[in-house]
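User: Please predict the structure of the protein below. I'd like the answer in structure-token form so I can feed it into my own downstream comparison script.

Assistant: Understood. Taking the following sequence of 216 residues as input:
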Amino acid sequence: MDYIHNKISEKINWYKKWHTMDSPDIVHWLLFILVVVFAWSSISGQVYLWLNEITEQEISIRLPNTNSTLSLDPQTNTVKKGETFAVNIILNTNDGSIDGVDIYGLHYDPTILEVVDDLPKQKGIQIESGKILPNNAVNSVDPSTGTIKLGQLSYGGENFKGRGVLATVHFKAVGIGSSFLKFDFSTGSTVDTNAAYKGKDKLGKVVDAIYTVVEK
């Protein structure tokens, strides 16, 4: 301590002057108090940051992601004219549960893509339903507008939680160019595309796709 004191006295004139005063002990005590206050403020600030980090972690644990996502797989693809390819409609419920899905609707360019009928024995054009929600309420394709509509429900009291194939669309490439495959979706709306649980819309996000058809 004396060594530090001597060095400071050599370098700083005002420190040397007040230290030769009659009552340097008072100043020493004042400096000591200032150092203690500064140290306590630093420690308190660090503790506050630690508490904030813990609080954020607890919040992220207590508030799981219950919003579902509908996506298309693959999201991009390039095929030759005349070829057929499959697109899966994927439902991911994240941490929540779903007992019904409506896709009103899913749009494509009918001059470039054509939906292959997966149920030729039934009237109209239908896509292939998955197994995660077994009750098909709506399954139709309008080839003139390029619109797919699908409604699937679980049986009474059951629900689906996880990630799975809701349905599969088989396309035939009939024209040259690129076609979007796009959901009608607005957050919170129950009159377009939605994924619900006990009557409440849980769909938080959709992921569209684009497919390109080239010459043979």
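That's the full token string. The longest strand covers residues 163-173.
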